[in-house]
Request: fold
Amino acid sequence: MNDDITEESFMGCSLASHYKKQRTDEEYFVESKRYRAEVLKIADELKENPLRFTITNVITMDVEITKSDLKTIVGKNTQDNCFNAFKNKLAQDIKGFIEKSTYEGWREVIPGKHPETAYFAYFSRELGGKAYLCIRKIRNTGLFKPYAIIDQNTFDAEIQNLRK
Reply:
């Protein structure tokens, strides 16, 4: 377990149940915690100086990533420790996630939730199972802010009225 998780080792997650697991659940749990700590260090660096960039992947977005955004992402865990480890690893490079992803579409905000959000956009990466970046457009600034990295089951539950 000395080596970092790679995209290839994600193939062992239960998301791709037809592949043999490459690590134990406990090993993925430990990796998840280690990557979470690494993301929180990155987040601390953003406290006074958020990361801002413009990127186009079907839609053009002015993205801002703050300490709070990264803390939110690593704080949203599933019961799948393998997925949590990869989610936390992917959270270390949100810009890279977007660059290497497929745009899935956008959806309106559920009435009564997230009043500051105009809509959510979704980007996916195929890593033996899909991981989805949920990014929201903030109404008053027009900035896009990462909100969560979710698994296929969560995406399927959230994609009512997904539009391209």
Notes: Residues 9-158 form one domain. Confidence is low (pLDDT under 50) at residues 14-20.
